[in-house]
Amino acid sequence: MTAQHHEQPPEVIPRPEKTFPSLRAALARVAPSRLAEFQADRDLAFTSATQHNSFRPIHLFQIKWATEIEIERLPHLAARYQAALDAANTLDRDDPKWREAMDNCLAIYEEAQAAVTDD
């Protein structure tokens, strides 16, 4: 009996730490067009944290962006996610395939989120 060798899919970059500098650097490599969105979200998270005297908005920001980067750093996951998003954005909401596409988007996002929150 031979041992099964399960090869991991290739990564564009290693998974970053959930710190602002690490997340920003990773995003700059995998999705540089989203840096302005990242900065705006960061500003909102800090403002909300200050207003509510809570670190929760910052934690949620870190999880959101770690998840987004997780999807983008794994080409097979990014391709699946983009295909599901494209379907969801082009199908009519009355089409049963639209619901399937939305379910796929959510499943992929949850898969990526679980990967970055399991550490």
In short:
This protein has 119 residues and is mostly helical. It is built from 5 helices and no strands.
Verbal overview:
With 119 residues, the chain is mainly α. The protein has one domain. The longest helix has 22 residues. It is globular and about 45 Å long. The protein starts with 19 loop residues before the first helix and ends with a helix. The model has no long low-confidence stretch (mean pLDDT 92).
Low-confidence stretches: none
Mean pLDDT over the residues: 92
Tally of discrete structural domains: 1
Portion of residues within helices = over 70%
**Helical region count?**
5
Portion of residues in beta strands equals: under 5%
| Strands, count | 0
The gross shape turns out to be globular
Helix and strand element order: HHHHH
Q: What integer value in Å does the Rg equal?
A: 17 Å
Largest sheet: none
> Helix- and strand-based class?
mainly alpha
Termini separation (Å)?
34 Å
Helix-strand layout with pairing:
Layout: H1 20-30, H2 35-52, H3 56-73, H4 75-90, H5 96-117
Helix pairs in contact: 1-3, 2-3, 3-4, 3-5, 4-5
List keywords for this structure.
mainly alpha; 119 residues; single chain
